[in-house]
Amino acid sequence: MGNDHSHLGGIEIEEKSVEVSDFWSHHSATITNSENTTNLSVLVGELFVDGPLWKTHTPLEKNSKHLMIYRHPCILKYISSWNKNSKYYLAVEEAVPLGHVLAKQNTLQICIGLHSVLKALCFLHEKAFVSHNNICTAAIYVTKDGSWKLGGMEYVCKFGELSSDFLKKSSNNRYNKAVDPNEEKHIQGSSRRDFIDIFSYGVLVCEVLKSKSDDDIPSLTAFRDFCKNSLQNIDVATRPKLSTLLEHEFFNHEFIIIHSFLIELPLKSDEEKTQFFHSLVERLRAFPEVTVASQFGNLLLSRLVLLNKTAQDELLPFILCPKEGSEDSARNFFSEDVFRKFLTPKLLEIFCVRDAQIRLLLLNCFKYFVHTFTKEELQSCILPELLVGVKDTNDYLVSVTLRTLADLVPILGAATVIGGKRGKLFTDGRPVCHPRRPRKNSKKHEPAPADTNPIIHTHQLIMNLPERPRPDGEEGETSAEEAEQSVEEDLDNWEDWGETNPVVQDNGESSSLHTNSSESVASVFEMEVTAQVSNSRKKSLPDISELDIKNQASSEQNDDFDFFQDMEPVIETSSKYLVKEDLEKSVSSKLGVEMTEEGGEDGWGEEECLRLYYEKLSASATGYRGSFLQPITGSEAGLACSDRTPLSDHYSA
């Protein structure tokens, strides 16, 4: 003790002190390692202190020695001590002086604190046979869970070594109000050595309960009067032992009984534990949840409670499940805010415990209190511990751990929980329902029903695919009535196909042509006439005859824009051929052609004209230029006339 070998590795001490007393300063400190961070309190004092009692050891060294020797749940816990650079350091559990928090303590908390100090004194008197000699608020510390711990052990002395000389030397530094004015006289004339602590404890009770009433705790006034009249009695012999105070009504309050049982749980039998946990929930409902959480939070989540079978079945389900609303007020005990403030920090510590039964208990209730953690706590503390559980050999533990990891995915995301490379491997196969575009002159469509498929719900937007484009060649949108009308017109066109007998007129004379060449000429003129007639009608669908590239007729009433208008060649002719469209009169001849010439009077004979005309028609089958009515040039006419083939030969051909 007191050497450099006791130095804690990785400790960081804050420069700002919490409190400065006569012999040391109180500082907060932390120890950081690879696993977790521990908060401590460090007392820093000088290595050399003047005084008749501190010749061999300083007050802080004596305090450190006694805290290390006398261990009790109600005494401040010793951790380590060392000296460095002419300073002495004492590390204890995280705690603050009582004077810093006494104003915030309620009556129940003060009652429990006085009970804890009383049990610590009973231990020192009846088990260690020593006297504390300085019971006051400066010697009491409050831990983070609200428990009062007895400290300030620098004046501790064994009963056999307690003398008037010791009391005289130490009286100057002890709490003046807690010093019995006649203690030197009593020490010489009485065999009792516990009267010093009895007197100072009575003073402590009167100070902390001076503004409290019986409305908070029954028998409070009676206990305060008892401590003032009996514990501070001038007659030392009439002062009761401190152990008898444990039977007073003030310390037999229901709240105190529960607290005492939880602290002394290792000393209780299994039958007592079963009876205690069976009715504990209903007994706790009689007190405010904030007081229960602050005073019993750590005790209810202790290792012995978590491993008790009765507590697992009848207590912990109500403790580990915070209220979700007013409807849970009769079932669960703590509200979400109280749970997050007092129980969540303790659960973070318990998750680091590698005990299978405790881990399974936490995992079974994890979905109920997972929202009380922050994302940082889940990611830095809870998730690593869960991943450790996945690697365990216990199959049941692994399965429960995997279910718990599923509860973290909506909060932290799959990338954080699962990790690794991920991609979109599944698609939503549901049909996309979107309103169809209304057609012209069609009935209005009713809106499509809303998608009520509960099988797949995704947070991503489902993009509506564009409607499939219409096939090439479809012109506009047509209704059903227009389609029927166009079909009827097509049928009419098919019926007229080849039934009419076109007439050929040449200077008022007609002739019947029965050869194949004459029939081809008739068919060509028939398509021309039919095209002109069909263009005069208003149709929505084109005639089938017009699909032939040779027979496509130009319509002046066509609304479609001709993109090849500028590319059409312009050919000037000197001769014009007129085709008469008299469809009503019946003519015996298939063709009626009237030709006028702007040339001279001299022309070709009948046979020469027919021969040239048929040659022109035969040339059109292999790719004539322009229309078959294009006039013949002079060179072509001369070449044709030079060939004086008899007309009969042409007919035979």
In short:
This protein is of the alpha+beta class. It has helices at residues 59-69, 98-101, 107-128, 164-170, 183-189, 195-208, 220-231, 254-263, 270-278, 280-284, 289-300, 303-306, 309-314, 316-319, 336-350, 356-364, 366-369, 375-390, 395-412, 414-417, 480-496, 516-536, 606-620, 634-642, 647-652, and strands at residues 11-20, 24-32, 37-46, 78-84, 87-93, 95-97, 130-131, 140-143, 148-150, 157-158, 576-579, 593-596. Residues 1-5, 451-468, 470-480, 494-522, 536-540, 553-558, 582-601 and 623-653 have low confidence and may be disordered.
Index terms:
653 residues, alpha+beta, five-stranded antiparallel sheet, 40% helix, elongated, disordered N terminus
